[in-house]
Write a structure and sequence with these properties.
- The protein has 391 residues and is mainly beta.
- It is 0% helix and 53% strand.
- The protein has no helices and 33 strands.
- It has strands spanning 16-18, 21-25, 32-39, 44-50, 57-64, 70-80, 83-92, 97-103, 110-117, 123-128, 134-139, 144-150, 157-159, 165-166, 171-176, 182-187, 192-198, 205-212, 218-223, 229-234, 239-245, 251-253, 259-260, 265-270, 276-281, 286-291, 303-307, 311-316, 322-328, 336-344, 351-360, 366-372, 377-379.
Amino acid sequence: MKDLCRPLIFGSLLILFLSGNCLAQHHWQTPVEDVYSDDWTDDQMMHFAVDASHGTLTPAEKTYLQSGMPYSPALATLQHAGVRKEFLYVLDLLSNSVCALAIDNKTGAASFIAKYPSTGSAPSSIAIDPRGRFLFVTNSGSNTVAAFSIDPATGALAPVPGSPFPTGMLPATVVTTPSGRRLYIANQFADSITSYSVGRHSGILRHRRDFTLPDQNPGPLLMAPDGRHLFVTALGSGNLWVLAIGKKGSLQPVAGSPFPAGTTPLRMVMHPSGRFLYVIDVTTRSVSLFDANPRTGALGAGLLEVSGSRPNAMAIDPTGRFFYLVNMDNSGGTPAGNISVYDINPASGTLTFINMTSFTGNPDSLVIGCREGCSRFSFDNAGDRDDDDDD
């Protein structure tokens, strides 16, 4: 029931043409970024300021969540009355709830707003539509997915009509397409992936179809930046499946799928160019790099990049220059964690270690926010097919 760290967006001063997909670069400015990581030990979210030149982290404030076990943070960015708003949401496993925090536009500091029931048991993952209008939570203990509308002024959550909606057995992870019009959920005990359409204005989910994965225990899902492919790890076999997304959300394995991905591949993150895929193997405690073809979805052989004491989660900053890896290490008898930062080679995707920030606690996930000056790629020929006839 692990979530994946959300893939962020690549930037540089050029235009790339990758296998028929045109990626256009917007103007580039020095970004102002923040990293947020959860800490199970002390019931808090940790905030780190990012050095824009080197990607290094400086610890800032900690936000306590009023008794709980934080897990799976996600950010919503939107506009309200001409003002940029950003909210941080994180699951609380102990109280079956979603914690909401407001992000200060000037400092990046997170302040606690409220807790909202996940309307189910054992919440396992969060997805937020790219426009910041709706938030979705899988409840693995009750086999449901809850859908909430996000108040653009306050960040408050309200269930959409009909929520929660039924899923398959043990819904582990949830992702949206780049437009936010479609939702996919991996049902771990049903060996299936369910697709839903999302009401454009209401956020109401409509079940579309189920895809049976010919493998065991589908785990984390990852959406390609252009919405053409869905990636899923099979925890029971060590395989990594790449599924082409067709009309009305249909899924079809690409040629060569599944691809071997180690002993127990878990979380994934993709470089925003769509060319490099990174996968954590929790058994070997390592991260592997796969070359990816954005047009076909095919993957090259995985190459070992880095290893950690206990790698849990990864993220790539919005400029595509830096790779962050969360490690947990309790070997000394006390909770200890660190976040390592690596430089990403833009031609090969290989990683070069820069430095490490250590702290006391049990970090499990992280997410990167960008307050200003964030360059982003856009896919002119995105494969996100929104052809459903709903609101």
